[in-house]
């Protein structure tokens, strides 16, 4: 079972929002779906869900077109949140779960489990508007996964959350994926994508510019870097042939290099300074690949 996007294009009169993209996501995998604001991510999600008509191409899930017949097997957390502020938490979740075809007894069981797991059980009878922004975010995510969807689309699920709650929700998403749910995960937090996802694709102005397994994308990108954890400045590093770029902060030096041979030359310099906490040759991060392909993250 899989999600297949084949040569899909979406045009609005003279504007092309998505241009001839193709990808396949196998059952149980998690795809990091990345792009700058306006790159075409939300348009693609809406086409997958059948909410926006496709201009050209085909999208199928398990070999059939997505329509109302399989909506109950899909979950979607949009970037623009949409809870009913005057409703109580339990009533909101029960209403949304009922729309997904769940039975009352199963709904009660799942609500109790997830409110306990998300550490918000005391908010069960509170109105949505009385909750903090972070707890509203938890309810929104919970609503998208309460019915244990086969396919789940998450658009910035952890935005606005503190680190403790981010870890709490990441764990829930990972467990859902481990249980077999296929997930499309969109975020500007590249480190979360590297941690959670199997595959990644990057959209730039509606074009698919990167697609593949994360390990392959990183290995094939090209330039590696040397990371040196030290308080020394080591200005000689800039002069080493094959060093493309050097960045420094208070704790480390990161030098982008043409090849691992260059790392040997840098190591010769480092040894003259004595002890350093770390010397490591690393592949490019998704953050670096993203910037290289499309520019800054929040543009």
TrEMBL record:
InterPro entries listed in its UniProt record: AAA+_ATPase, ABC_transporter-like_ATP-bd, ABC_transporter-like_CS, ABC_transporter_ATP-binding, DrrA1/2-like_C, P-loop_NTPase
GO molecular function: ATP binding; ATP hydrolysis activity
Highest taxon, organism lineage: Bacteria
Keywords attached to this entry: ATP-binding, Nucleotide-binding, Transport
Limits of the ABC transporter domain: 3-230
Entry's family note: Belongs to the ABC transporter superfamily.
Protein name: Multidrug ABC transporter ATPase
Gene that encodes it: ybhF_1
């Amino acid at each position: 079972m899989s999600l297949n996007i084949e040569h899909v294009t979406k045009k609005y009169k003279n504007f092309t929002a998505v241009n001839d993209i193709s990808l396949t996501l196998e059952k149980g995998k998690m795809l990091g779906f990345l792009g700058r604001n306006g790159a075409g991510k939300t348009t693609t999600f809406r086409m997958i869900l059948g909410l926006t008509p496709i201009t050209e191409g085909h999208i199928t899930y398990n070999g059939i077109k997505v329509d109302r017949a399989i909506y109950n097997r899909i979950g979607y957390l949009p970037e623009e949140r949409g809870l009913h502020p005057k409703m109580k938490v339990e009533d909101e979740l029960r209403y949304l779960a009922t729309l997904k075809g769940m039975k009352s007894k199963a709904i009660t069981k799942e609500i109790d489990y997830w409110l306990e797991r998300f550490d918000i059980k005391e908010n069960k009878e509170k109105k949505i508007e009385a909750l903090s922004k972070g707890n509203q975010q938890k309810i929104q995510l919970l609503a998208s996964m309460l019915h244990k969807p086969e396919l789940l689309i998450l658009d910035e699920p952890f935005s606005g959350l503190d680190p403790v709650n981010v870890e709490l929700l990441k764990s829930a998403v990972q467990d859902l994926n481990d249980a077999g749910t296929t997930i499309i995960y969109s975020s500007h937090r590249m480190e979360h994508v590297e941690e959670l996802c199997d595959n990644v694709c990057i959209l730039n102005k509606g074009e698919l510019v990167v697609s593949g397994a994360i390990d392959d994308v990183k290995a094939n990108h090209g330039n590696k870097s040397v990371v040196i954890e030290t308080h020394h400045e080591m200005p000689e590093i800039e002069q080493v042939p094959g060093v493309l770029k050097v960045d420094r902060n208070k704790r480390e030096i990161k030098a982008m290099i043409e090849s691992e041979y260059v790392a040997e030359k840098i190591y010769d310099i480092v040894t003259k300074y004595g002890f350093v906490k770390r010397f490591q040759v690393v592949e490019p991060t998704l953050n670096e690949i993203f910037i290289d392909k499309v520019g800054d993250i929040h543009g």
